[in-house]
Amino acid sequence: MAQLDERIGEIYNEVLRRNPGEVEFHQAVREVLECLGPVLAKHPQFAHNKIVQRICEPERQIIFRVPWFDDQGNVQINRGFRVEFNSSLGPYKGGIRFHPSVYLGIIKFLGFEQIFKNSLTGMPIGGGKGGSDFDPKGKSDNEIMRFCQSFMTELYRHLGEYTDVPAGDIGVGGREIGYMFGQYKRITNRYESGVFTGKGLAWGGSLVRTEATGYGCTFFVREMLKSRKQSFEGKRCVVSGSGNVAIYTIEKIQQLGGKVVACSDSNGVIFDDNGLDLELIKRLKEVERRRIAEYASHHKQAKYLESGNIWDIPCDVAMPSATQNELNGKDAATLVKNGCIAVGEGANMPTTPDGIKIFLDAKIAYGPSKAANAGGVATSALEMQQNASRDSWSFEFTEAKLDQIMQGIHQSCYETAEEYGAPGNYVLGANIFGFIKVAHAMVAHGLI
Ligand code: GLU
């Protein structure tokens, strides 16, 4: 782990003391603070205004009970969260995650990351995140609906198109957004399209939003490769996960001439040396909501590796697109040893700190999540723009905008890394560029 300078070390210790047990939040904060020494030296007003201390403290945290009836008529109780982290650049913006691992520390790490990610997009959006420890796996459609309605019956009072605008994340897709939006509309008696993003196309959604995180991440890696005079053409790629981010990462890599040989879910890994059959994956995951193991029963040459490690499969490009801390130091060392030249993070914080260090030391092209996966939330901001003007744009126009935004993020990170004497270090570039914009806005708004 990199050293923190003395002043920042004290701030970090205070974060540890005030937020005991929230290990993912500590990890996300530490990674940003490790980059800020030279920024504070250059901008004394940031230290004077205690910007770093303030940015680590959410503006508001909401925790609530979510009771619902399951199909057997039993009462179930989950916990709901919304952490409204920072509104200097715009209304709180960030997804909602439904997963049994969710607790305050997960939502705070995600909300903290979201501040800098959203800043990097150049769009007017602040940072927030929400979720619940509800496990959607194995639930009926009616159970999902009842849960979403109960969740929204509390959360609606904290939302608004100028206040806080949720979207999807792990376990929350178009279906869940629909149920939550419906309940919001019913309670408020307002058709407020801009209060949610990731909506269905018939009711205020944007084309390309579904594809945006995966497409954007692939565009970001394309830019990293381009800066090294390389391209996706003929590259062997591995994409972990098989949810929304993974599916559209695979799609765009294939369009750009790469071959994706593996993907996964929490049970195991699918390896298909012929290149993955994306239509089959879409049908299994998006339509039938099945496990990825079933892929192997449709393609005899494919192997299903039950509880296998996807990072053991040799590749040129790795795109971790499942969840936090899915790629550790040992995995990073294996990837580098096997000749991997680029890593683009579709998931949030998928690489552990020792894994990041290995990628940076090996000087491979490593695109950290808050830069590489910002295309999802950037396209959410494009959805908000369309809602505000009651307009809807074509697929080509919206995708071109997403591509431009990802090129802009790449350039900002690349140039900031050079300016701060660490060429090629996108972690430093993303953290510093994302932070400075928020910090200037916070200074301008006074002590609030
Ligand atoms: N959950 C996504 C993310 O991690 C998207 C958030 C959004 O669109 O608001 O950035």
List keywords for this structure.
about 450 residues; alpha/beta; Rossmann fold; 7-stranded mixed sheet; 5-stranded mixed sheet; 18 helices; 12 strands; about 15% strand; globular; binds glutamic acid
Architecture overview:
This protein is an alpha/beta fold and about 450 residues long. Among the domains are: about 60-190, Leucine Dehydrogenase, chain A, domain 1 (Rossmann fold, 3-Layer(aba) Sandwich), CATH 3.40.50; about 210-365, NAD(P)-binding Rossmann-like Domain (Rossmann fold, 3-Layer(aba) Sandwich). The protein contains 18 helices and 12 strands. The chain has a 7-stranded mixed sheet, with helices on both faces. Strands 1-2-4-3-5 form a 5-stranded mixed sheet, sandwiched between helices. The longest helix is centred in the C-terminal third of the chain and has 25 residues, at about 395-420. The chain is globular and about 65 Å long. The protein starts with 5 loop residues before the first helix and ends with a helix. The structure holds glutamic acid. Glutamic acid binds near residues 95 and 348. The site of glutamic acid has 10 residues, from strand 3 and helix 16.
Major sheet: order of its strands?
Answer: 9-8-7-6-10-11-12
Number of helices: 18
- CA(first)-CA(last) distance: 33 Å
Rg estimate, integer Å: 21 Å
Number of strands: 12
CATH architecture type of the domain at 212-367: 3-Layer(aba) Sandwich
* Secondary-structure element pattern, one letter each: HHHHHEEEHEHEHHEHEEHHEEHEHEHHHH
